[in-house]
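Subject: design request, 159 residues
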């Protein structure tokens, strides 16, 4: 069993019993996809909602393009697209009392975009731990589909 670290603006796929993890989700969102029957998982650490207007940049940085690439990579290693389920975490509001400024609501926008894209692609969202004002570290246990979330000030939970 290996622990595979996914960096910021990165995505990776793996097979059980490997565990995918990403550290320090603030306004970023961690999007996980799992095919439980095939025991294949994927994790993307996205920073911004949409690739539109940023063509030519790293597609793993954006919710819309990262999700599509994650699906493509997972199906290439044997996942069944119709069997994929999603869990997401992150999207915190990390800038204090600046709530009135929409430009600074990036966490909220990242979470909303991730949920919308998954819904548009017909991928069921099994769990969603987004918002708040605390950072998160997540671990995806591919063998069970469990997503462990560790937060400073908000403890640890599994969704």
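Subject: RE: design request

Done. Sequence follows.
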């Amino acid at each position: 069993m290996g622990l595979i670290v996914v960096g910021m603006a990165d995505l990776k796929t793996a097979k059980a019993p490997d565990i995918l993890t990403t550290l320090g989700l603030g306004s970023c969102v961690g999007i996980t996809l799992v095919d439980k029957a095939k025991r294949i998982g994927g994790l993307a650490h996205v920073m911004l909602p949409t690739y539109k207007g940023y063509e030519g940049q790293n597609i793993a940085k954006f919710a819309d393009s990262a999700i599509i690439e994650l699906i493509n990579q997972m199906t290439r290693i044997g996942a069944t697209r119709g069997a994929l389920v999603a869990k997401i975490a992150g999207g915190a509001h990390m800038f204090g009392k600046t709530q009135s400024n929409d430009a600074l609501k990036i966490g909220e926008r990242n979470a909303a975009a991730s949920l919308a894209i998954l819904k548009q692609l017909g991928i069921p969202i099994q769990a969603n731990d987004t918002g708040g004002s605390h950072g998160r570290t997540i671990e995806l246990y591919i063998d069970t589909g469990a997503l462990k979330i560790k937060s400073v000030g908000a403890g640890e939970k599994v969704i």
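Helices lie at 63-76, 106-120.
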